[in-house]
Amino acid sequence: MVSVLLTSSDIFRALLLTLSAVWLLSDLALAKHAGITRHYKFDIKMQSVTRLCQTKSIVTVNGQFPGPRIIAREGDRLLIKVVNHVQYNVTLHWHGIRQLRSGWADGPAYVTQCPIQTGQSYVYNFTITGQRGTLFWHAHISWLRATLYGPIVILPKRHASYPFPQPYKEVPIVFGEWWKADTETIINQAMATGGAPNISDAFTINGLPGPSYNCSAKETFKLKVKAGKTYLLRLINAALNDELFFKIANHTVTVVEADAVYVKPFKTDTVLITPGQTTNVLLRAKSKTPSATFTMSARPYATGPATFDNTTTIGILEYEKSVSASKSNNKKLPLLRAKLPQFNDSNYAMKFNRKIRSLATAKFPAKVPKKVDRRFFFTVGLGILPCSKSQTCQGPNNTRPAAAVNNVSFVQPNIALLQAHFFNKSKGVYTTNFPTNPPFKFNYTGTPPKNIALSSGTKVVALPFNTSVELVLQDTSILGAESHPLHLHGFNFFVLAQGIGNFNPKNDPAKFNLVDPAERNTVGVPSGGWVAIRFLADNPGVWFMHCHLEVHTSWGLKMAWVVNDGKGRKQKLPPPPTDLPKC
Predict the structure, then answer these.
(1) N or C: which end of the chain has fewer CB within 10 A?
(2) Which phi and psi angles does 2 have, rounded to 5°?
């Protein structure tokens, strides 16, 4: 007889398998009525790419830049196997996917998972529930999302139609940001010296910079259209650090969706889109083929005091010529250029954002929480932190710029928050004393206080299951007022109101729109202003909330919400998959 000695990890793995099997059997019973399962394989590998006359090796999925498009239908299950062949630790985030009871697949490093190390793999396993529209995936560790990103297109269920005219064609338009230098080196150097990271050298449309940059005329995205046809443009801002204005010369578009939620259609000639946001627009081509081509231009909306990449990426809109016109006329057509708003036109930004409203119909209701269980007031902005004695930093008295929510600059833990939460091992990893209000009151958008030092820590807010939350996000003028695109993982939220100056808790709630507010996953906190949102914490797990300007995330403008399990089985987070990466 052979005695087998089981290690604690063997027992743990066996327990996980048993638990997973129990969950799986009950979930299979429900699967009969669901969509199909779609499999993707993402090999993370280095690839040489030439832009702006320079070749560099970049991190890609399957050697593609931008990365492959994921296409699914509402109700489908996705199994995406990610294999890491590069020297960097990697995680991927499926931006805007609700991840209902599948928080293990959400992707932010050290929040829901440890990263996938070199030579390792992980299967992201989730179901798209109650969502359809445009989202995107991107790396969620350090600055790797500079080149690791791609579209997610969620089609309506079979036989379901769009609540707008069926387009002739659908085209993803993904905005990116390009550096000639290696982006990992840039952020690592900045963090070491306490300086601001170098700004980008170009913006891109579907990976191509376009003719306004050196030797890039051949690297221009071209969209060919037929006169009289309607095109659905799926706009995605995957840039690291810049909100963007987008405009097609001599054309208007109709906005029909934002962050994968249908909106009341409205016409505009310019779209504002922050990093992390997606916007679907209908472009109706002119009824007669014009004798011109048109620029599709994007350039930053920048409100802060820091320098920024003040360049414009250009794509070209061309009309297909009729056969007779092609034979008779081969001369080069004039190129008409788009005139974009001023780079700091916050008035335009505010007006544009206020036009975005939910459909709020019987079929697509706006389920705004009417009662509020918990109210929070968070300041978001910059400050300073002391550097370690071994560092020589560029700030006064050896300090460096940092960013915070309610004066707490978030410190990334060494193990994933979700694991610590699930296995009740939070001690020494995080604390649940994240402040409900700023630690001290001041004139947030006026003259900054003398003391601009931040505190730091790994603090979270813990919420019971199904808590309805109202959150006011207030920009501050410390080191300069600035628009901050805040992204919440695991939920959509309703944007009730926004304003300039300091939020007034007596008067401003009267302006809240509880009927048809925009439903989003990323919202721009106005420069020198505030935004009020509500969401229902109906998704157990640990959910990251952070500024989607990557420089501010690196500096600590981030926090997390821990949503505890409810009583029912459908209100609990299942155990982690057995291939969850280890730290």
Answers:
(1) N
(2) -100, 125
Q: Find, among 371, 372, 394, 374, the residue nearest to 384 by Cα.
A: 394
Q: Report pTM.
A: 0.93
pLDDT tier, 30 (very low <50, low <70, confident <90, very high otherwise): very low
Q: How far apart are the first and last CA of the chain?
A: 37
Alpha-carbon distance of 512 to 115, in angstroms, equals 40
pLDDT tens track for 291-340: 999 999 999 999 999 999 999 999 999 999 876 666 556 689 999 999 99
- Cα 552 to Cα 259, 275, 518: the distances in Å are 21, 12, 25
Q: Which amino acid is at 162?
A: Y
- Tokens 């990697």 identify what position? 90
Choose among 347, 270, 259, 356: nearest CA to 303. Answer: 347
* Dist. CA 192–CA 518, nearest whole Å: 40
Helix locations, 395-461, DSSP H? 417-422
Q: 10 Å Cβ neighbour count for 541?
A: 27
78 near 98, Cβ under 8 Å?
no
Helix (H, G, I), strand (E, B) or coil at 511: helix
What dihedral angle (degrees, nearest 10) is formed by the CA atoms of 160, 162, 163, 167? -150
For 163, the token pair is 């609540």
Q: Is 48 exposed, middle or buried (0-12, 13-18, 19+ CB in 10 A)?
A: exposed
In which element (H, E) is residue 21 found?
helix 8-31
What does the pLDDT average to over 399-415?
Answer: 97
Residue 71's φ and ψ, nearest 5 degrees, are: -120, 130
